[in-house]
Amino acid sequence: MKVEIVEFPPTRVAMISHFGPPEREHETARKLIAWKLQQGLRDPLQHRSYGVHHFDPAKPHEYPRRVDFCVSIDQAVAANAFDIVEALIPRQRCARCRDLGSRENNQAARHLAFEWLPGSGERASGAPLIFHYVNVGPTVLPHEAITDVYLPLA
Question: 10 Å Cβ neighbour count for 9?
Fold first, then answer.
């Protein structure tokens, strides 16, 4: 897998946090999707979808587990019934790797943490992994999914 060192830009987002088992993440993500559609944020190039994963890649199923589901925005987030809040993914230097295929079994995160990082001369910053869901929507089949994974570096 190809790894690049990049500068992740500061990104203003609308966000909802999921706490708990991965099997229930879709329920939380659906709230963000409903809010996004209500706001008319349909262009995936202008309003990118992210998951900010607060977990140890060595123990992905350990609890408590938190994932912040986000969509990039250019407008303020008003009070709403979906529990969506405004947040900022900060600027940070990252290693980026692309995963192709089902989001159920992301290989790029494992590759960055366990294969690339130990021999890279770099150190992880301890900040959460950022997943950019490049293509999203009901017409994207699991084997067509593209996810860029960002590992923040110290």
Answer: 10
Determine whether 79 is exposed, middle or buried from the number of CB atoms within 10 Å of its CB (0-12, 13-18, 19+): exposed
Taking residue 100's Cβ as centre, other Cβ atoms within 10 Å add up to 13
Other C-beta atoms closer than 10 Å to the C-beta of 123 total: 9
Does residue 93 contact residue 151 with C-beta atoms inside 8 Å? no
**CB contact set of 10 (below 8 Å; sequence gap of 6+):** 88, 89, 90, 91
Listed in sequence order, the residues at least 6 apart from 56 whose beta carbon sits closer than 8 Å to its beta carbon are 62
Give the C-alpha separation, 35 to 82, whole Å.
Answer: 7
pLDDT band at 142 (very low <50, low <70, confident <90, very high): confident
Task: Give the number of other Cβ atoms within 10 Å of residue 95's Cβ.
Answer: 22
In whole angstroms, what is the distance from residue 145 CA to residue 153 CA? Answer: 25
Give the separation between CA 91 and CA 85, rounded to whole angstroms.
19
Could you tell me the pLDDT band of residue 62, with boundaries at 50, 70 and 90?
A: low
Q: pTM for this one?
A: 0.92
**Rounded CA gap, 149 and 55, in Å?**
14
